[in-house]
From TrEMBL:
Name assigned to this protein: Cullin-4A
Family per record: Belongs to the cullin family.
InterPro entries noted in UniProt: Cullin, Cullin-like_AB, Cullin_CS, Cullin_homology, Cullin_homology_sf, Cullin_N, Cullin_neddylation_domain, Cullin_repeat-like_dom_sf
Region Disordered, annotated ranges: 1-80
Biased composition (Basic and acidic residues): 15-30
GO biological process entries: cellular response to UV; developmental process; DNA repair; proteasome-mediated ubiquitin-dependent protein catabolic process; regulation of protein metabolic process; rhythmic process; ribosome biogenesis
Metal-binding as UniProt keyword: no
Bias-annotated ranges (Polar residues): 1-13, 48-78
Length: 807
């Protein structure tokens, strides 16, 4: 029950002035006696109530104040009457019993010691809590706090002795320390619950004083852990446990977690443990890295590094403080990765790339990304590998024509492999993509013109084969991949020349498997190199379309002439500026063919006056009807082949010289033609040759092969026209060089016309920037001399290294 009832403050109406003053004086006398009189009354036991003589501290409360408003009936009758606030004084606090502080502390001290000894407490926790509250209410908080601190400190000091006397092994010592720490924490939690009022009032109001829990931590830190013997044994024991775990042994992780959390709670984790732990880690992995780099191959080493990083991350999750994460992982990365970057790359990167070890390369990239310069060094070595492997494909096959035929396919496969590695293993990193592009451009142009020529021939083979080997979607995808290689080559004019030559044959011999694919390739080239690059190629397609229209108009014209004969004539009109240059060739045609040529000539010139037609027999092809003893066949042959075969209508045996005289075909071309008819596959040998052999020699005799058999009715034998001769190749290459000379001359004149005066070095530099094909400085110098001789420019009289444009 409370020692005093609440005081009341009454607000009353003011009656007469005298009455108010008198009442006020009486109330002041009653409620505010003089200090001396009040002190005597409080000291006199006769003046105390029973509750004051025997205070019940369990129910001690602080008096409450109340404000009550009373309204008098007179206030309503007198609207202007003044009101007055009357305050009654607090009643005095009850007197503290004798020995209150000593008795209360004795109870509390007894309870604290019982907690330290893990004994039962005689008093209820509510009673102890109320005792603390009462002492705090009577301003004994500071003394109470100090007494509590002394008792706790004495107990903690007794714990220290057992650690100094303990001679057990380090693991038992750690268990003993952990047991003591856990007990101390439980005890401080219980003690704090009893002294909670002290903690929430006195301690909270004094910022310089530690809370009861922090005081307990401080006492344990100051009296136990800060002892050098205990600290050294604790840290060394923890490091030995972690070392055992790193060596593969199973250890008590819960013990490690508890003790490391203790060090963290005591705020000595960094200074006492972390520094030594990181030093030990550094030594361990430095020695391990050196040893394993010598003993293991690179993939095994990388997997070991990954395993170690995962182990250390797991330790951070289980018992290490998270503040250790950054320095710990950095230490492992430094000693196992950063210190061995060159060795890892030199020892294992080429093999992993060569063997396409996707998983190992992915792990390598992930580990190298963790350290500074790791990704940069990996990218540099990756570029070195691409250049080295690319040179093996492009340059090492230089003297082997058969391997040259496989070069483009090998380049495409190599590019696919590298792209897959970048996408899957290197996270599509832009650095690696740029390194790949630069490396491909580097090695593919070390053999100046051949890659461009071979890429053009590869496109030709795919556009001839077309849908027989792949679907339209697959062919389109292949053309996209070829265009990627095309972007890397410098000699795009070489590609254009060979592509134009092969395109002409595909169009004229009807060998193109897909017109859509042809036009798609043309569109890709136009998008890549501009309209000027493809203008002639587009002109070739336009000529073919016009020729089809012309052939449709020719049929009714010939029907009107009533021309007798079995020849179905088709003529392609080619614009010389669009198509490759062909050497004029005169051969002896049968009279029927000559007659049809004249009819067409008259028909065409009747439509287009002022034009000149020049026949190209080397581009013609025919379909002959042949009667063999086994069956009748249709032979699809070139014009030259047809001229040779038609001779056998008059005889079964002809010599090489007789055929040469009768046809007037150029000798090298005739040998190729006869070789295709008599020395090809056994199923395609329309003629037989004596003596047998692959080569055609003077004096060879040729026979009509009466034993010829073939399952098909129409047989294609004109493949000889599609094959490129060495002379053709040389001629195409020479035309490219001649065109380049004209382009160089035009570029020099264009630059000099703009700049008027220029030094030799600056002119050469400008030419390198403008020309889109590889060229040597010596060749540029020759073209400059040629232009000086032709008075397009002149040397400066005072400085021969300067040139002036001659208007």
């Amino acid at each position: 029950m409370p020692l005093s009832s609440p005081n009341k403050i009454s607000l009353t109406e003011q009656p007469k002035v005298d009455e108010i003053r008198e009442n006020k004086r009486k109330r002041n006398d009653e409620n505010n006696p003089s200090p001396l009189k009040r002190a005597r009354e409080l000291d006199d036991p006769a003046n105390m109530t029973d509750s004051q003589r025997k205070p019940n501290f369990s129910a001690l409360t602080t008096p409450n104040n109340g404000i009550t408003r009373h309204s008098s009936p007179l206030s309503n009758n007198k609207p202007g009457a003044a009101k007055k606030l009357v305050i009654k004084n607090f009643k005095e606090k009850p007197k503290m019993p004798e020995n209150f502080q000593q008795e209360t502390w004795r109870k509390l001290c007894e309870a604290v010691e019982a907690i330290h000894k893990s004994c039962s407490i005689r008093y209820s926790l509510e009673e102890l809590y109320q005792a603390v509250e009462n002492m705090c209410s009577y301003k004994m908080s500071a003394n109470l706090y100090e007494q509590l601190k002394l008792v706790c400190e004495a107990h903690v000091r007794t714990c220290l002795e057992q650690f100094k006397a303990d001679n057990s092994d380090y693991e038992q010592f750690l268990k003993l320390l952990d047991f003591c720490w856990q007990a101390h924490c439980r005890q401080m939690i219980m003690i704090r619950s009893i002294f909670l009022f002290l903690d929430r009032t006195f301690v909270l109001q004094n910022s310089t004083i530690l809370s009861i829990w922090d005081m307990g931590l401080d006492l344990f830190r100051a009296n136990v852990i800060s002892d050098k013997v205990v600290e050294v044994k604790t840290v060394d024991g923890l490091l030995r446990l972690i070392e055992r775990e790193r060596n593969g042994e199973a250890v008590n992780r819960q013990l490690l977690k508890s003790l490391l959390r203790m060090l963290s709670d005591l705020q000595i984790y960094k200074e006492a443990f972390e520094k030594k732990f990181l030093e030990a880690t550094d030594r361990l992995y430095a020695a391990e890295g050196q040893q394993l780099m010598q003993e293991r191959d690179v993939p095994e080493y990388l997997h070991h590094v990954d395993k170690r990083l995962n182990e250390e991350t797991e330790r951070l999750l289980h018992y290490l403080d998270q503040s250790t994460k950054k320095p710990l992982i950095a230490c492992v990365e430094k000693q196992l990765i950063d210190q061995h970057l060159p060795q890892i790359l030199n020892k294992g990167l080429d093999n992993m790339l060569q063997e396409n070890r996707i998983g190992d390369l992915m792990l390598l990239y992930q580990l190298f990304t963790r350290v500074n310069h790791g990704q940069k060094d990996l990218c540099s070595m990756f570029a070195v590998y691409i250049k080295k492997a690319g040179r093996m494909i492009v340059i090492n096959n230089e003297n082997d024509p058969d391997k040259d035929k496989e070069m483009v396919q090998k380049l495409l496969d190599f590019k696919d492999k590298i792209d897959n590695i970048i996408d899957v293993c290197f996270g599509k990193s832009e650095k690696f993509v740029n390194a790949m592009k630069e490396s491909f451009e580097n090695f593919i142009n070390q053999r100046q013109n051949k890659p461009a020529e071979l890429i053009a021939k590869y496109v030709d083979s795919k556009l001839k084969a077309g849908n027989k080997e792949a679907t339209e979607e697959e062919l389109e995808h292949l053309l996209d991949k070829i265009m990627v290689l095309f972007r890397f080559i410098h000699g795009k004019d070489v590609f254009e020349a060979f592509y134009k030559k092969d395109l002409a044959k595909r169009l004229l011999m009807s060998k193109s498997a897909s017109v859509d694919a042809e036009k798609s390739m043309l569109s890709k080239l136009k998008q890549e190199c501009g309209a000027a690059f493809t203008s002639k190629l587009e002109g070739m397609f336009k000529d073919m379309d016009l020729s089809k229209d012309l052939s449709l108009a020719l049929k009714p014209y010939m029907q009107n002439l009533d021309v007798a004969g079995l020849i179905d004539l088709t003529v392609n009109i080619l614009t010389m500026g669009y198509w490759p240059t062909y050497t004029p060739m005169e051969v002896h045609l049968p009279p029927e063919m000559i007659r049809y040529q004249e009819i067409f000539k008259k028909f065409y010139l009747g439509k287009h006056s002022g034009r000149k037609l020049q026949w190209q027999p080397s581009l013609g092809h025919c379909v002959l009807k042949a009667q063999f003893p086994s069956a009748n066949k249709e032979l699809q042959v070139s014009l030259f082949q047809s001229l040779c075969l038609l001779l056998f209508n008059t005889g079964n045996v002809l010599t090489y010289e007789e055929i040469l005289t009768a046809t007037a075909i150029e000798e090298s071309e005739l040998k190729r033609t006869l070789q295709s008819l008599a020395c090809g596959k056994p199923t395609l040998r329309v003629l037989s040759k004596k003596p047998k052999g692959r080569d055609i020699e003077d004096g060879d005799k040729f026979y009509f092969n009466e034993e010829f058999k073939h399952p098909l009715f129409r047989i294609r034998i004109n493949q000889v026209q599609m094959k490129e001769t060495p002379e053709e190749n040389t001629s195409t290459t020479e035309r490219v060089f001649h065109d380049r000379q004209y382009q160089v001359d035009a570029a020099i004149v264009r630059i000099m016309k703009t700049r008027k005066t220029l030094s030799h070095n600056l002119l050469i530099s400008e030419l390198f920037n403008q020309l889109k094909f590889p060229v040597k400085p010596t060749d540029l110098k020759k073209r400059i001399e040629s232009l000086i001789d032709r008075d397009y420019m002149e040397r400066d009289k005072d400085n021969p290294n300067n040139y002036h444009y001659v208007a």
